[in-house]
Design brief:
single chain; alpha+beta; 7-stranded antiparallel sheet; 51 strands; binds 2',3'- cyclic AMP; transmembrane
Length: about 1000
């Protein structure tokens, strides 16, 4: 009865409910029943008949809504039931019931008895049967008693204040097909505005390239484990899994998928690599540009095919440029010694882009008349070996005398076998001979000397005659005398008393002349006497008389045949040619490979004359200035010597106004460099001393000094290329140490690099360690030393040895692998000395193979005898080059994780990039919106890729630095 005055007030309230807003549910909820969206009758059961009543009302959009009301507050003992139709549970184990209702405040109803209630009860009954017409009250399970948070009064209605209550309850562990809900009123005044039944699901999501489907949450609060499936064009790296929580959220992602080879990751899916880009392995995140000399004309390339004429060796990483076989070795030199020969050559001009060049030597021999030719067979013995030589040098022994040999030298690298083109070779022809090596006995008088010698050990034919050459010591340039005899004894007379003469003898057999034997110096006596120092003297004397007669006959015959005085030939050789011969001979005599310090010469100009070739200034064309040296400018230009091809050269000149001492110091570099002849030592072409400015001419190295070169090409070389460079430097140093030369300033800045990446040791001046090197600092003992590169014993007590050069070599290794990083960063020299003394050693640079860091550490052994010799270093590096797998294991620590000084504190993106030497990317960062240092903390590898920072080395460097920034700022983000 009281309903009649309650209805209008409820309708008033309902007209304020924005129905469309009620239907805007979260996307992780699946609605099973929504009374507000029912267009017709809800068809719910209400009993008794005078209890709950279904009413249609209009919402604000005039959409009809079904509601139920009951308000039998004036009568006691109410028990009114309202039961929904069957609600299928749709697989859900836990469902939620959201009810919206209004409830009248009993106190605001005038005259209602004390039986008036302000609550109602909610029940459910599980059933597989969707058509039950009756459920006993006792069969229901109670969900809850629902009370209103807000009840309303007549005043509220008058004021049009809406007091709609919303309550949510849930039922768990449902197992039957569906259930019925029931609302029991026991005497309240209620309008049930809406009932919504829903369950929660974890919505479809894609994470780590795995798709996780819509997943219904579990019963109670159990987590549901879901296996993800990899998105298109991706594959499992580790089985992707996630947990769907009871409230519809995804938790704990495990595993991931990765884009297949040929596809790169882009915003949660895999995109085919564009033409010109490739991705070799599923484990790489992004497509990267094809390396040099390779191409990928189609999309989705797992690798780039090599251009015509270029190849990739089996073990070459796909990221490495395609390479080609080397050109032929160059400038072969043969030094014949009787029946053995030493062959040396320069590395090929074109390395093919690889650092793994080895050499093979093929041998053919021909009889001297050239009629019978064929392979050499197993006769000759090659030292160290015939094939796979790592140094451009081989010594061949056990050759047949008086035989023509052709040695074909080929350079081979890791792709030579893949190329169908014939290998390029350089050939050397030699003819073997024999030498009279030992002058056995001698007899001297005031004006004559008698010599006796032994014939060649393995003469191929009978000795026809011997030729004796002699000259007054130090007078060879002026004149020398050649005498011939059939005997192996000769008396030379007409000599000056008390004078030293130099004698050499060679034999002529049927096959021709052999080589001269070693020199012997003999001095005539001051007075006439028989200087007989041998029990066989009488024999010698007798033989010599006989020999003398033969000689006389020969002399006369010779005189008659040639019509001239053949026993006395004045030397008229070009002094340069003479000197070259001298150098050649000196370097190849056993035990003579010794460096001669220019200071051992009384006259320093003589040292220059002995070791450097004077070049006519008209042969030089200076083209441009390339730098500044201690004594003046360094220029590049060309040198064209008569009957030689024009070559590029570097020209160091001595500036005007120099003192004599400065001139000497300047030229000392040439007299040192001129003594060396090795493919990894900068080659001296000659000097200009006869006119001004005084100049030193060396071979031109297109890529300049190694430190600048590496900084310019940061991250761009393969580890094999870097090791190849290091091997070259070690080979040059090994040669210097064999020559007993100690460099004292070995550093990347003193290594020059040519266009084939061949590294050569340079900077040999006498004063340079003191004056020239900007890195040199005064030590407590007053000497000026490049502290960071110098071994502790050399700093402490000037103990410079090849072992201290090895220490410096270790630092050069570090410079090379870190692409020109400054050793010990910004530490002061004093701190470096202290740290080294306390046992600190530079950590492995980023991406440094363990084996290389270990080699560095070996070079930095405190005890100098513990350090490896340069020859051993070369052998170790050769092994690594032959077996690149050994370089795969990288040292764990990176310079960016473990620097002795933390990253300098910076406050702007520009300063930060400058501090890590990545300043070239300032515009990239700014353009991508990273203008504050804070924003940089969250940059990921994909962000870098999008910005255009594509070099892997640069990405790693930047990301490592970001990690340091994060630690400094107490943030840690997974990048
Ligand atoms: O780093 P760079 O370009 O290489 O600058 C220095 C500069 O001269 C002063 O020493 C360059 N330089 C020196 N010798 C040679 C050379 N033989 N070939 C090419 N550049 C050279 C060096």
């Amino acid at each position: 009865m009281a309903l009649h005055w309650i209805y209008p007030s409820l309708l008033t309230v309902l007209s304020f409910i924005p129905n469309h807003a009620l239907r805007n549910y979260p996307d992780n909820e699946v609605t099973l029943l929504d009374s507000m969206s029912a267009l017709g009758d809800l068809g719910w059961e209400a009993y008794p008949a005078e209890g709950w009543e279904e009413i249609s009302v209009m919402d604000e959009r005039n959409t009809p809504m079904r509601t139920y009301q009951v308000c039998n507050v004036m009568e006691a003992n109410q028990n009114n039931w309202l039961r929904t139709s069957h609600i299928p549970r749709d697989g859900a184990q836990r469902v939620y019931i959201e009810i919206k209702f209004t409830l009248r405040d009993c106190n605001s109803l005038p005259g209602v008895p004390g039986t008036c209630k302000e609550t109602f009860n909610m029940y459910y009954y599980e059933s597989n049967n969707a058509n039950l017409w009756f459920i006993k009250e006792s069969q229901y399970a109670k969900i809850d008693t629902i009370a209103a948070d807000e009840s309303f009064t007549q005043v509220d209605v008058g004021d049009r204040v809406m007091k709609l209550n919303t309550e949510v309850r849930d039922i768990s562990n449902l197992s039957k097909k569906g259930f019925y809900l029931a609302f029991q009123d026991v005497g309240a005044c209620i309008a049930l505005v809406s009932v919504r039944v829903f369950y929660k699901k974890c919505p479809l999501t894609v994470l780590n390239l795995a798709r996780f489907p819509d997943t219904v949450t579990g019963g109670d609060s159990a987590l549901v484990e879901v296996r993800g499936s990899c998105v298109n064009d991706s594959e499992e790296f580790e089985a992707p899994r996630m947990y769907c929580s009871a409230d519809g959220g995804w938790l704990v992602p495990i595993g991931r998928c990765v884009c297949k080879a040929g596809f790169g990751e882009h915003e949660g899916h895999c995109q085919p690599c564009r033409p010109g880009f490739y991705k070799a392995s599923a484990l790489d995140a992004y497509c990267v540009k094809c390396p040099l000399h390779s191409h990928a004309p189609l999309e989705r390339a797992p690798e780039c095919a090599c251009e015509k004429g270029f190849y990739r060796a089996e073990l070459d990483p796909r990221s490495m440029a395609c390479t080609r076989p080397p050109s032929a070795p160059e400038s072969p030199i043969s030094t014949i010694n009787e029946t053995s020969v030493t062959l040396e050559w320069s590395p090929p001009r074109e390395s093919g882009g690889r650092g793994d060049i080895t050499y093979s030597v093929h041998c053919r021999k021909c009889s001297e008349d050239g009629r019978k030719c064929g392979p050499c067979g197993s006769g000759p013995h090659f030292i160290p070996r015939q094939f796979g030589l790592s140094l451009p040098k081989v010594h061949v022994t056990d050759l047949l005398p008086h035989t023509n040999y052709t040695f074909s030298i080929e350079a081979v690298n890791g792709v030579s076998d893949l190329s169908p083109s014939p290998r390029q070779i350089v050939s050397v022809n030699i003819t073997t001979s024999q030498t009279v090596s030992v002058i056995l006995k001698e007899r001297k008088s005031k004006d004559s000397i008698t010599l006796a010698w032994q014939g060649p050990e393995r003469a191929s034919g009978a000795v026809v005659e011997y030729e004796v050459i002699y000259y007054e010591k130090n007078q060879r340039d002026q004149n020398y005398t050649v005498l011939k005899t059939r005997s192996n004894v000769m008396t030379v007379d007409g000599l000056k008393p008390g004078t030293t003469y130099v004698f050499r003898v060679r034999a002529r057999t049927d096959g021709g002349y052999g080589n001269y034997g070693g020199e012997i110096e003999l001095e005539t006596s001051h007075e006439d006497m028989l200087a007989i120092g041998d029990p066989n003297q009488s024999t010698i004397l007798a033989v010599s008389i006989a020999g003398g007669i033969v000689l006389l006959v020969l002399l006369v015959a010779c005189f008659v045949v040639s019509g001239r005085h053949c026993g006395y030939i004045k030397a008229k050789q070009d002094p340069d040619e003479e000197k070259m011969q001298f150098q050649h001979g000196r370097v190849n005599l056993p035990g003579s490979r010794m460096y001669i310090h220019p200071h051992t010469y009384e006259d320093p100009n003589q040292a220059i004359r002995d070791f450097a070739k004077e070049i006519d200034v008209s042969s030089i064309r200076i083209e441009r200035v390339i730098g500044a040296g201690e004594f003046g400018e360094v220029c590049s230009g060309r040198l064209k010597l008569p009957s030689k091809r024009e070559i590029y050269v570097a020209i160091k000149s001595l500036k005007a106004g120099y003192s004599e001492q400065q001139r000497r110091d300047f030229l000392s570099e040439a007299s040192i460099m001129g003594q060396f002849d090795h493919p990894n030592i900068i080659r001296l072409e000659g000097v200009v001393t006869r006119c001004k400015p005084v100049m030193i001419i060396t071979e031109y190295m297109e890529n300049g000094s190694l430190d600048t070169f590496l900084k310019k090409h940061d991250g761009q070389f393969t580890i094999i290329q870097l090791v190849g460079m290091l091997r070259g430097i070690a080979a040059g140093m090994s040669y210097l140490s064999e020559m007993n030369y100690i460099h004292r300033d070995l550093a990347a800045r003193n290594i020059l690099v040519n266009s084939n990446l061949v590294c050569k040791v340079s900077d040999f001046g006498l004063s340079r360690v003191l004056e020239d090197d900007p890195e040199a600092a005064y030590t407590t003992r007053g000497g000026k030393i490049p502290i960071r590169w110098t071994a502790p014993e050399a700093i402490a007590y000037r103990k410079f040895t090849s072992a201290s050069d090895v220490w410096s070599y270790g630092i050069v290794m570090w410079e090379v692998i870190s692409y020109g990083e400054r050793p010990y960063w910004e530490m002061s020299n004093q701190d470096v000395i202290k740290a080294i003394d306390e046992g600190y050693r530079l950590p492995a640079p980023m991406d440094c193979p363990v084996v290389l860091h270990q080699l560095m550490l070996d070079c930095w052994e405190k005890g100098r005898s513990e350090r490896p010799k340069f020859g051993q270093i070369v052998a170790t590096l050769d092994k690594l080059i032959r077996n690149p797998n050994s370089l795969r294991q990288l040292a764990n620590s990176s310079i960016w994780e473990d620097p002795p000084t933390p990253e300098p504190s910076v406050s702007t993106v520009e300063d930060w990039l400058d501090s890590i030497k990545m300043g070239q990317y300032k515009e990239h960062f700014c353009g991508a919106g990273y203008v504050t240092l804070d924003s940089v903390l969250y940059v990921t590898v994909s962000d870098l890729g999008r910005m255009g920072v594509s070099l892997a080395g640069h990405q790693k460097k930047i990301l490592s630095s970001i990690q340091i920034l994060q630690t400094q700022q107490g943030t840690h983000v997974q990048v």
